[in-house]
Structures are given as structure tokens and as C-alpha cells.
Fold each of these.
Amino acid sequence: MSDPASSSASASAGDVASLSTEQLMHDYVLGNYGRFPIAFERGEGVWLWAEDGRRYLDFSSGVAVCALGHSPKVMVDALAKQAATLIHCSNLYWVRKQAELARFVVETIMGRAGKVFFCNSGAEANDGLIKLARKRAWEKYGADSGKNVVVTCRQSFHGRTLGGIAATGQEKVKIGFDPLLPGFLHVPFNDPATLREAVNEKTAAILFEPVQGEGGIHAATPEFFAEAAKLRDEFDLLLMFDEVQCGAGRTGDWCGWRTILDGSGVEVEPDAVSWAKGFAGGFPMGALWVSDEHASVLGPGTHGSTFGGTPLACAVALAVLGEIEGAGVLANVKRQESRIREAVAAWDFPVLADLRGVGLMLGFVLDADAMARIPDFVSSGKSPSLFVVNASRDTGLLTVPAGETVVRWLPPLNVTDAEVDEALALFHGVLSTLSGR
Ligand SMILES: Cc1ncc(COP(=O)(O)O)c(C=O)c1O
């Protein structure tokens, strides 16, 4: 029995209403996240309301999740209708909504023949890609070939499962979890020559994010795509894209790599792709697509997930993706990106070094030297990105840090002109204050 006087036993079932969210979080929820001290209780579109009644302009979207904002009608209606009809049935049976959603992925998102598997998160989708690559090489070349290495990039992020942290090119996610899953090699992002040096007959796949998100909003270059595709052909490996953060419309096209390669003269298509985050607008869902050529690798009994592709999840994803397709949302992404870029181009703040990114996946890059001249920042002990994210939140604008120096804007894809203008005004105010103006 726990000691009734200890904090973890302080709330009996009867008195929970009298306890603050902060207290409940502290007493009962695992402390694995660094959290900002706010609890939201309601959301509508781009707006969130905290428990103290304060309203926030949410340009984080649950870290690129709420593609259509908070509680959009199209999602609420789809949820309610499907929940009242059929929430779950196992993958022992045909699932109509799953098949319809897979068709949407193949016909509309990819526009290429292939097959789709549904799961519940980005890490899980990437685990599926890793299994696909290994099994495909094992079937074709045999266990003795040793062709099982997946080459990924430094500063990448592929999730928190054992497969995800092994694939991720950042040491901080791996510390303490040895032995890590073997068979991964990390190369510098956007360095075609080093990629070529790393790849050999043992390589089963190359996996990278077309736009690195957690690593600080870096888009892959056409040269990097082109070299990866060449190596695919030379070494018979799979080229796999992690579109968990940059996919499903965030760049202004269904596929992030097509936005980047558009007009570059380079044309590259992957063998497999993963999605999650905004794919179902906030309903937990991950997915992977594999080209027809390799689809038979994951045959009966090779892979699965109890909750993968339920009628409820698929109905919601269909509604969200259908809205993105039908309501001009992709065009809005590009238009709002241009409006933001145009406005920011006229700003002149020493603390702002750059604005980079694709579509509505934008990174404001802070100048660490200029930040170091701000006494409040220096005494805060925070990273530049966290300091500016906190300052923005104080003004009512929610953003997300990426690494030490990048502040991410990830607004809903259907964000309006007025909402973008308001965010620009708030962020301009933050940078003005920092600059002592
Ligand atoms: C590119 C990328 N891949 C994978 C993941 C992991 O997704 P999840 O948290 O849904 O497992 C993330 C999450 O941030 C991501 O940005």
C-alpha cells in the first residue's frame, strides 16, 4: 500500500474535481515530457482556450497534427456518424472504410499503383518500413547476404519505438536504451557524396524525411534525392520517405518530395512512404504505402496491428483528406506560405537569421550571437528557440521549438488570411521586444 500522506496517493476518486490539473499531472502522469504549464480545455479552428479562460492562436497544431484546426465540423460529423455505426472490427475481416481510404492513398495521394497498411502512429509506420526493407532483402538475397542495413540521416527523427530510435540520427533519443537495434547507418543530410560512400551491397534501404522537422526544418535538396535514387538502382535497395510530419498536404501538395522537386528537373519517386500526424487530422493514425512491386513482401502473418485501420479511424481520415482535396486546402497552403514569406522578408531583426521550410512547415532561424546580446535571454538559461517560443506564448501565439535555434510554425492547413496576419503581428511584436524596439 502506498503511504496516504504521499503526493501520489493524495487524490481519492471522490475528490478529483478539487485537484488542479497541474497537481494531477504531477501525481499520476509519467514525467517523460517537458511540458509548458498550460492545460487547454477547448479548441475551435486555429484557437485554443486554456483552463484560465485565456485564448491562444495555435500555430503548432499539436505539432503538425490538427490539419484542419481544432474540432473541425467535417471531422466531428464523421466521428459521430461512424461511431454510431461501427467503431471497431478486427483485421480478421474485410473493412470497407479501410479499403476506401487505401484507395484514396493510392489514387489521390500517391497516384501510383501500390498497397497501403494502416497503424496508429508515425513510429509504428516507420517500424513497418524497416520491416518491409529487411524482409524484402531477406527474401531476395537470403539471410547470409547481410543485406539488412538501413541508411538514414543525421538530425533525422523517426519516432520513439526501438526501431524508431535506432533509425533516428540524433544521439539524445538513444541514451540509456542500449542495446539498440542493429543495422542502421547515419549519414549527413544533403551530402550526396557521403551517402554514396555509405551505401553498399549490404544496404537494404535508404530512409529519410523529405523535410526534416524535429531536426530544424531542413528540406532535402534535389541533388540528394537524385543520388539516393541512383543508389537505389545500382544496389537494388528500397528508397523510403518518412512523410510523417511533412506529408498529407503540409507542403501544399499531397507529397512533400513533389513540392521540393517541382521545377528542379529532378524526378524521383520512392518505393515506400510513411505518414501519421496530420493524416487523420488529430485522430491517431499512421499509414504506409508500398509500391506494387514490393507489396507482396508483407504477406499474411508478417505484420499487423490490432487497432490499425479501424472503421472509425478510416472514416475520419477519409473526411479530413476529402476536405483537404475538395476545399482548396492545398492551394491555401501555398498561398499562405507566400504571404508569410512576403511579410517576413520586410522584417529586419538581428535575432532573425532566416526563414526556411516548405509550405506551412516553416522554421524561423534565430541568430544565436544576436540572442546572446539580450540580457533576459542570457539569464533565462534557455535555448534561443525555447526562449522565443515562451515569449510568443506569453503574447498568445503557440509555436514549437525545433532544436536549439529554430521556432516552427505549423498552422492548420486551412488557416485564413486574418489568422496569418494576426500571427505575423504577434511574432513581429515578440522579435521587436527582443530587439529592444
Ligand atoms: C518525421 C517524423 N517521423 C516519425 C515521427 C514519430 O511519429 P509518432 O510520434 O506519431 O510516433 C515524427 C514525430 O515527430 C516525425 O516528425
Amino acid sequence: MLPRTRFLTDGSLEQLARRLRFLGYDVATHRGARLGELFAAAWREDRAVLTMSARQPPKSAPVTVLRVPREDLEAAVRAVVAAHLPATAPWSRCPACNVALQARSAFEARGELPGRLTRPGVPLSWCPDCGRWFWPGSHVARMHAWFERVIGRPPDAVDQP
Ligand SMILES: [Zn+2]
């Protein structure tokens, strides 16, 4: 059984962090943090560190470190999925903010979204942090296809390696 891991990274891996959040991985970002600061924060918050650096964590903060290749987003996603399980279900957290999305009714979305999306039966969710709305649209379909190609199975199956 793979560990269910929460991650911490800095702004340099934001594109990877966003992809992983689509899959349900809890990836916190400390923008501008130095690697030593990341190690210390990850130790305090019980997270593993995602980094491109080869540096080892100090003895004072012996955190798990997952090294990912530079400028190879697909290989980086594969490396994470191969060794760690996501904290929550796919499509359940905001890809930008990492917070849990909240289910919203069509009624609550009136005036915020086009009418075609605010009909009964369209599952809507909303990020309490940035206020963005999410629904099963073309973006999700494209992401779904990207993950199927990169990790060889649909996002909903990352929990069953
Ligand atoms: Zn958000």
C-alpha cells in the first residue's frame, strides 16, 4: 500500500502542483521559500517536500523528499503517482489554491455562471478561497485525456495502483 502523502513545494513547481491537485493531491506552495525553509515547514506540517534540488534535508528536519526532473512535467507526475496516494478524490480541490471545493446548487450560481450551467443536474463546485466555479466542462475532459495518456489510467483510478 502506498503512503497517502501531503506535499509542500515552492513556486518553481507550481505547474506540477496544479496538475497534482486535479488528482486530489494536497500540495501546499510556499512561494519564494528557500529549500531550508521548505524542509523546516514540511517537518512542522507533516508533509513531504517536492523539489528539483538534490540537497538532503537536515538532521533537524528529516522529511521525505521527492525529487522530480526539471522541465519534464509528465515524468514528474508519473513519479508522484507511482509512489504516493492522493489525500482526497480527484477534482475535489482548487488547482490554484489547494483548498477543498464546496458543492453548490444551481440556484446559488445564478448570476455567476451562464444559464446553461445553472440547470438542475449540473454538478457545480466553488472555491471558497479564490471564488472560482468548477463544473464538468471541456477543461475537465482535456485534463482527463492528458492524465490517461501520462499515467496510463483515468484520474479516478489513481487510488487503485
Ligand atoms: Zn481557488
